[in-house]
């Protein structure tokens, strides 16, 4: 049987950086870790870039996204959803901020701060048309299908 796994090459840019890893065998995301060897960083309501100390390489045709961790989101600490392009070779940073009236959050070296999710991109072609196929919903936007 042919091996169809996608290879995600990871380069440590700092010797204390941790490689992404799945917390469980069935986790869809890989945990990303803060690389803060010079000390903790305080995150408040303004976005803060947290370094991971790693850079990635993955094949064209894949989508790699940084997503929030549910455990941190429950505490009001959100990672901003981000897309990593296949040709980017720089350090991976995670943008964190605290929402609402929550107290500032302290990020320490080695903390799990976000997750990395890899998916295949659909082979999409953009085609300009003069009309779209009508649907029952039509142009109804936000909340148009009901609140429940």
What does this entry look like structurally?
The protein has one domain: Deoxyuridine 5'-Triphosphate Nucleotidohydrolase, Chain A. The chain has a 4-stranded antiparallel beta sheet, with no helix packed on it. The relative contact order is 0.24. With about 150 residues, the protein is mainly beta. Helices cover about 5% and strands about 35% of the residues.
What class would the helix/strand composition place it in? mainly beta
Shape: globular
What is the element string, with H for helices and E for strands? EEEEEEHEEEEE
CATH fold description: Deoxyuridine 5'-Triphosphate Nucleotidohydrolase, Chain A
Distance between the termini: 47 Å
State the fourth-level CATH superfamily. Deoxyuridine triphosphatase (dUTPase)
What's the rounded overall pLDDT mean?
A: 93
In the sheet with the most strands, the strands line up as 2-11-6-8
CATH class category: Mainly Beta
Number of separate domains: 1
Q: How large is the radius of gyration?
A: 19 Å
- Helical content class: under 10%
Q: Which range does the strand content fall in?
A: 25-35%
Strands, count: 11
**CATH architecture grouping:** Distorted Sandwich
Q: How many separate helices?
A: 1
Q: What is the makeup of the main sheet?
A: 4 strands, antiparallel
Ranges with pLDDT <50 over ≥5 residues? none
């Amino acid at each position: 049987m042919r091996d169809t796994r996608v290879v995600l090459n990871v380069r440590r840019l700092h010797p204390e950086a941790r490689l992404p890893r799945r917390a469980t065998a069935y986790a869809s995301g890989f945990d990303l870790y803060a690389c803060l060897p010079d000390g903790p960083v305080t995150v408040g309501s303004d976005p803060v870039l947290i370094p991971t100390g790693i850079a990635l390489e993955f094949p064209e045709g894949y989508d790699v996204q940084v997503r929030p961790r549910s455990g941190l989101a429950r505490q009001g600490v959100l990672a901003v959803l981000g897309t990593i392009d296949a040709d980017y070779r720089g350090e991976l940073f995670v943008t964190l901020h605290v929402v609402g009236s929550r107290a500032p959050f302290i990020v320490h070296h080695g903390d799990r701060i976000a997750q990395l999710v890899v998916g295949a991109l659909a082979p999409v072609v953009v085609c300009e048309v003069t009309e779209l196929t009508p649907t029952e919903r039509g142009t109804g936007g936000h909340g148009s299908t009901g609140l429940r």
